[in-house]
Amino acid sequence: MRTRVKICGLTRRADVDAAVAAGVDAVGFVFHPPSPRAVSPHDARDLCAGLPPFVTAVGLFVDASPEYIRSTLDQVPLELLQFHGEEAPELCASFGRRWIKAIRMRPGVDLAEEQRRYGHAAGLLLDTFDPARPGGTGQRFDWDRIPTALARSIVLAGGLDGENVGEAIRRVRPFGVDVSGGVEASKGIKDHDKIRDFMQRVNDVDFS
Fold first, then answer.
1. 53-63 pLDDT, tens per residue?
2. Keyword Manganese, does the record have it (predicted)?
3. Which domain range does residue 187 map to?
4. pTM (2 decimals)?
5. How do beta strands 123-127 and 4-7 pair?
6. Using CB atoms within 10 A of its CB, is residue 84 exposed (0-12), middle (13-18) or buried (19+)?
7. Any idea what the CATH number is for the domain that residue 72 is in?
8. Do the Cβ atoms of 99 and 79 come closer than 8 Å?
């Protein structure tokens, strides 16, 4: 089964169009104002306009208030929510959308327990732990920490780029991969050549 790809932190129409043209499965919009990749609901609504069928619009939130999330959903046609903070499962499930939960790979994290705790999630996204930032570190974690039995239910993130995504997929065999900084010219500004290269490296992986 092919590996699905989400490009996150999109802020410009040209970058959304480049991601779609390259064949991504999902495009991600950051609704966390401290992030340099954050967009407003108004701008995200415009960026979602014209997305073709089967390209999923994902909204990323970090410990946002329920009111802010609902207000965003009233304005933006998001199909999947990504919770990247310390949100409880009950909160994640309360918005009438499919959702995934990001797990930052801090020392001692028990992925089997996290999967049980967030059992109603569409999947878990595994990212690098940084005590100062909820994501977007540009650093990878030790992929050997991912139990083989869980690999097909997770999305792998954290420091991926065109140089290492092929190795990551061959070693972990995740359902999907998520990239932001690894395809950027600068924070929030994507490099279209890097997007195309990343997609090509994913598609070139041979499991035989």
1. 999 999 999 99
2. no
3. 4-203
4. 0.94
5. unpaired
6. buried
7. 3.20.20.70
8. no
Residues assigned a catalytic role? 8, 127
Tell me whether residue 208 is in a domain.
no
Q: How far apart are CA 71 and CA 74, in angstroms?
A: 5
Residue 142 lies in a domain: yes
Q: Is residue 96 very low, low, confident or very high in pLDDT (cuts 50, 70, 90)?
A: very high
Q: How confident is the model at residue 122 (pLDDT cuts 50, 70, 90)?
A: very high
Is the CB of residue 105 less than 8 Å from the CB of residue 128? yes
Q: Two tokens at 63?
A: 């410990």
Q: Is 92 inside a domain boundary?
A: yes
